[in-house]
Amino acid sequence: MVDDAGRVLMQRRGDSGNWSLPGGIMEVGESLEDCVVRETREETGLDIRITGLLGIYTDPEHVIEYSDGEVRQEFAVVYYGRVIGGEIQVSDESTEVRFLTLDELAELPVHPTVRLRLDHHSEQRQLPWLG
After folding, report:
1. Which of 35, 44, 52, 96 would give a disulfide with 26, using CB separation of 3.0 to 4.6 Å?
2. CA quadruple 40, 42, 44, 46: dihedral positive or negative?
């Protein structure tokens, strides 16, 4: 999600301290778009409208081990969107939520997989990333 100034909606994760894009797990009976809207609302307090697709990201090296022992290989479908309502709020998964410029993000802790997505956003790609 970007605002009118081109800043990207980011959350600082409570578990790692890294800045990340809002996101989460799709629920049964939900479309990808419904998942994006719901997760963004849950994690940031903002209501959004999807405006496009940045890409589909898979990385066999991006394996996450959770504190409960669960291990997953993550993938992400990353959409563009615009805020249509709500107010920024912090969820139980984050310590901070705000819009940041790409220059500000260059100086902050961001996982390499998220940094790749931000780089693709900055390139204003004409076609979605598939990889």
Report:
1. 35
2. positive
Query: Cβ contacts of residue 4 below 8 Å, gap of 6+?
Result: none
Q: Specify the pLDDT at position 61.
A: 85
Distances in whole angstroms, Cα of residue 115 to Cα of each of 34, 47, 48, 111, 119:
25, 24, 22, 6, 6
Write out residues in the chain with pLDDT < 50, as ranges: none
Token couple for 85 = 């309502």
State pTM to two decimals. 0.89
Report the candidate in 6, 36, 33, 21 with the shortest Cα–Cα distance to residue 97.
Answer: 21
Please enumerate in sequence order all residues whose Cβ is within 8 A of that of 92, keeping only pairs 6 or more positions apart, or say none.
14
8-state DSSP, 45 = S
In sequence order, which residues have a C-beta less than 8 Å from that of residue 86 and are 6 or more positions away?
41, 44, 45, 46, 47
Q: Check residue 36 and give left, alpha or beta (phi > 0: left; psi -120 to 50: alpha).
A: alpha
